[in-house]
Design brief:
The protein is of the alpha/beta class. Helices cover about 35% and strands about 20% of the residues.
Amino acid sequence: MTVRHPLAFPLGLVGMALLRGEAGEFPDEWVVHRIAEVRALLAAYDAGDLGGGQPVGQTDTVTGYRIWSATYDEFNPLIAVEQGPVRALIDRLPAGRALDAACGTGRWSAYLASRGHRVVGVDTSPDMLDRARAKVATATYTRAALTALPLPDDAVDLVVCALALPHVPDLRPVFAEFARVLGPGGRVITSDIHWQSLYLGGIASAVDGDAIQKRMPAGRYRPSDYLAAALPLGLQVTALQEPRWPPEVIGGGPVADRYARAATVAAYENTPAAIIWEFRLPGPGERPAEPTAPDGPRSLTPR
């Protein structure tokens, strides 16, 4: 158990904003205002307005999602960023056999079913699976880990894995399972919080019955880590997107937003919120496909 200092996160946001100012993104006067925000935060802490430190613990995903399952479908700024690009990738594909890997409450199962796919979902959380079953009666759900998918080889045409891979200790065995169950010509679509945004309060957590925040595992996977896991399996990159945080969802919590709102916006602005991949498994003897141009002005496709 650790204790989160009430100044640590808001001062960190101001520090990130100041680094951007020092890099020339903002004028000198703007930097002076950020220094004033630091003084205001320190004064508020000294006056006792920010309260004391808050205990923070660790938990596994099964326990964490047992708590979070009841409210997971409420508004989530990361989902607001991720959902549109992933839907656009799915919409280009014909209906077929789809695996919703780490399906959670069935958010993507429901969308896949609405697009005509025959859906199988897996997750390690029984509580999330219960909600998925209630949401998508036509899908088949099984409790299973991403490293041991309960499917035969070449079983599906599409694998969707959303906001789950930072929880695993190693991407390679997970992608090996994706490639195993995927048929020739099939696609893998993954979405995750971008590693840069994990430092902006993006670590998945749940508040237990004692009002203690418990953080779940959060790997800091770079784009090169995904490539190192996928390319040796023959998977080819067909799309890569790194959508940024839009202004309407930016927020640093009550303290940061009250005392350092401009710095908070600057810290999140132009920072990637999510990383979204599409891979394709070619058939035997098939020539590599050219990557397709992604949708949206804030996307990156490798050439």
